[in-house]
Amino acid sequence: MNLANIRNFSIVAHIDHGKSTIADRIMLHAGAVTEREFHNQLLDSMDLERERGITIKASAVTMYVNYKGEKYMLNLIDTPGHVDFSYEVSRALTACEGALLVVDSAQGVEAQTVANAYLAINEDLEIIPVLNKIDLPAAMPETVIEELGNILGIGQEECIYVSAKSGKGVDDLIGAIIERLPAPEDHINDKLQAMVFDSHFDEYRGVICYLRVVSGSIKEGQKISFMSCGHSYTVTELGKFTPKMDKRKELGCGEVGYMIANIKSLSDVRVGDTITSLDEPAEEPLPGYEPPMQMVFSDFYPAQSSDYPKMKAAFERLALNDSSFTFFPQNSPALGFGFRCGFLGLLHMEIVQERLERENDIEVIQTSPSVSYEVLSTSGEIFKVDSPSQLPEKSEIEEFREPFVKLEIIMPKDYIGTVMQLAEQRRCVVGKTEYLGSNRVMMQFKAPLAEIVYDFYDILKGATRGYATMDYELLGFEKSDLVKIDILVNKVEVDALSTIVHRDSAETRGRKMITRLRQAIPRQQFEVPLQVAVGGKVIARETIKAYRKDVTSKLYGGDITRKMKVLKKQKEGKKRMKSVASVQIPQEAFKSVLKSG
Ligand code: GTP
């Protein structure tokens, strides 16, 4: 198709503002789906898609529409809707020339509206603001327009009013897509460069790569190579999702589609990588490739150690479908064999965890998530520390660094005080505060990722009666006063319980852990000290009292010397046990300590 008649775009929105419904409406308008399919919420329904054999989720749908007597190809590229996947979002956006920024006109601008708008602006996309749900009685388009103006500099004249529910305004929206969004740049005569913006694994076909052809064209049977990882393949199938898989012999410059090339594992394909011709390669890859960065780590142990092989197989399968998830064998004297797993963020972790449980029926003991740290060694090397056990000796550490994020919270102004207080408790430093309108504000903070990754969002929601929304993006690693705390049970360090925390919270955190441990470990026949140590120095202690077997109860009568003898023996017995016996810690105890963050 003529380049001038191609439009590549994404839809970005805060969760629930109507992204999927608008996508379906556009597809309905273009005849890509029927009225019945529309009502089944096509793009969102995994089961439905499986039934129709389209595999999991079409990340790009090609539609054709007639507009003012001409035929246009519209490629709608889907973006993952969460901050954990912001790199993937940015790659999907670079595959486009424009983005629809959808805002629920009853809810107004929310944290992810702003975060997504920035991502699109950073990729130099043309933005079409869409006020959705104008059919709702609570719709307040004027307020939303004011907010868009204040925060993003968007003017009223740019906004399109839509009800994705009734279909009102969808014609105007399609008109705006064609009139306002630029066509792809003309690089028809250059060497092949195609960007991979997503990929998924299909049991029958292997890896399906989604790509945007930026220059040249790609053909069936062609030998291609991935420029960052260096692997080469022969293209066995090309096509587009319309939304069913629709084969093509060639994908031309500016087009979007899928490629199958007998690729066996998702780890062979990197989002952001550039595909070129093996025989006539482009000089350079497209800019912006970054390897996935795991920011959150957690250990998974099977509750039944006999489930270890089953768990290993399950993780291997999961990794096949998800190239940003990593796992390494881990052996803890306390919990046995398990895996240390790396995730892009907390939501990513929850997705993997749910799939592990739902699809594999394995009972799992999971340690509380921790972030990844960085150490600058005295010899000048920088390395990542994903687990306290990887920390070098103190004398070898020049600088200990933790990840910081830019945190944005949008809330009604009455909650400023509450949110400030919460942020302060979490070592957040307040930055800009901007009014969206007369009633709502956006506050920015610089926050340590470790402080917000676990339960911050739930606490924020609770403290603001559900009104606040938040989003964050990684800023980088910075020096911080961090320490490793060790937990000693009966004077023995339990590696699975070691954790890295800020020095100021070391004692509180350590105390919390040993208090929970004390409650969860049953009394033994001897006294069990529980200690918290930082750098070998004990900073807190609790004791689990022993059962005191009353061995003298049988000795009635007044033979005091005999009584003393027996008591002495018992004491020695206790000592012996103390020095030889390790404490039996029930797994439940670990769960309660590890899960509580
Ligand atoms: P996520 O996929 O969860 O991010 O949500 P989304 O942004 O894709 O929103 P979705 O399209 O699933 O819509 C969220 C809810 O709003 C659904 O219950 C829709 O039926 C409803 N909705 C979407 N558009 C409209 C609209 O124009 N009017 C009304 N009244 N409801 C709408």
From TrEMBL:
<dbReference type="GO" id="GO:0043022">
    <property type="term" value="F:ribosome binding"/>
</dbReference>
<protein>
    <recommendedName>
        <fullName>Elongation factor 4</fullName>
        <ecNumber>3.6.5.n1</ecNumber>
    </recommendedName>
</protein>
<comment type="similarity">
    <text>Belongs to the GTP-binding elongation factor family. LepA subfamily.</text>
</comment>
<keyword id="KW-0648">Protein biosynthesis</keyword>
<dbReference type="Pfam" id="PF00679">
    <property type="entry name" value="EFG_C"/>
</dbReference>
<dbReference type="InterPro" id="IPR006297">
    <property type="entry name" value="EF-4"/>
</dbReference>
<dbReference type="InterPro" id="IPR035647">
    <property type="entry name" value="EFG_III/V"/>
</dbReference>
<feature type="domain" description="Tr-type G">
    <location>
        <begin position="4"/>
        <end position="185"/>
    </location>
</feature>
<dbReference type="Pfam" id="PF00009">
    <property type="entry name" value="GTP_EFTU"/>
</dbReference>
<dbReference type="Pfam" id="PF06421">
    <property type="entry name" value="LepA_C"/>
</dbReference>
<dbReference type="InterPro" id="IPR005225">
    <property type="entry name" value="Small_GTP-bd"/>
</dbReference>
<dbReference type="InterPro" id="IPR000640">
    <property type="entry name" value="EFG_V-like"/>
</dbReference>
<dbReference type="InterPro" id="IPR027417">
    <property type="entry name" value="P-loop_NTPase"/>
</dbReference>
<feature type="binding site">
    <location>
        <begin position="16"/>
        <end position="21"/>
    </location>
    <ligand>
        <name>GTP</name>
    </ligand>
</feature>
<dbReference type="InterPro" id="IPR031157">
    <property type="entry name" value="G_TR_CS"/>
</dbReference>
<dbReference type="InterPro" id="IPR000795">
    <property type="entry name" value="T_Tr_GTP-bd_dom"/>
</dbReference>
<dbReference type="GO" id="GO:0003746">
    <property type="term" value="F:translation elongation factor activity"/>
</dbReference>
<dbReference type="InterPro" id="IPR004161">
    <property type="entry name" value="EFTu-like_2"/>
</dbReference>
<comment type="similarity">
    <text>Belongs to the TRAFAC class translation factor GTPase superfamily. Classic translation factor GTPase family. LepA subfamily.</text>
</comment>
<dbReference type="GO" id="GO:0045727">
    <property type="term" value="P:positive regulation of translation"/>
</dbReference>
<keyword id="KW-0472">Membrane</keyword>
<dbReference type="GO" id="GO:0003924">
    <property type="term" value="F:GTPase activity"/>
</dbReference>
<dbReference type="GO" id="GO:0005525">
    <property type="term" value="F:GTP binding"/>
</dbReference>
<keyword id="KW-0251">Elongation factor</keyword>
<dbReference type="InterPro" id="IPR038363">
    <property type="entry name" value="LepA_C_sf"/>
</dbReference>
<dbReference type="InterPro" id="IPR035654">
    <property type="entry name" value="LepA_IV"/>
</dbReference>
<dbReference type="InterPro" id="IPR013842">
    <property type="entry name" value="LepA_CTD"/>
</dbReference>
<comment type="function">
    <text>Required for accurate and efficient protein synthesis under certain stress conditions. May act as a fidelity factor of the translation reaction, by catalyzing a one-codon backward translocation of tRNAs on improperly translocated ribosomes. Back-translocation proceeds from a post-translocation (POST) complex to a pre-translocation (PRE) complex, thus giving elongation factor G a second chance to translocate the tRNAs correctly. Binds to ribosomes in a GTP-dependent manner.</text>
</comment>
<dbReference type="Pfam" id="PF03144">
    <property type="entry name" value="GTP_EFTU_D2"/>
</dbReference>
<keyword id="KW-1003">Cell membrane</keyword>
<feature type="binding site">
    <location>
        <begin position="132"/>
        <end position="135"/>
    </location>
    <ligand>
        <name>GTP</name>
    </ligand>
</feature>
<dbReference type="InterPro" id="IPR009000">
    <property type="entry name" value="Transl_B-barrel_sf"/>
</dbReference>
<dbReference type="GO" id="GO:0005886">
    <property type="term" value="C:plasma membrane"/>
</dbReference>
<keyword id="KW-0378">Hydrolase</keyword>
<keyword id="KW-0342">GTP-binding</keyword>
<keyword id="KW-0547">Nucleotide-binding</keyword>
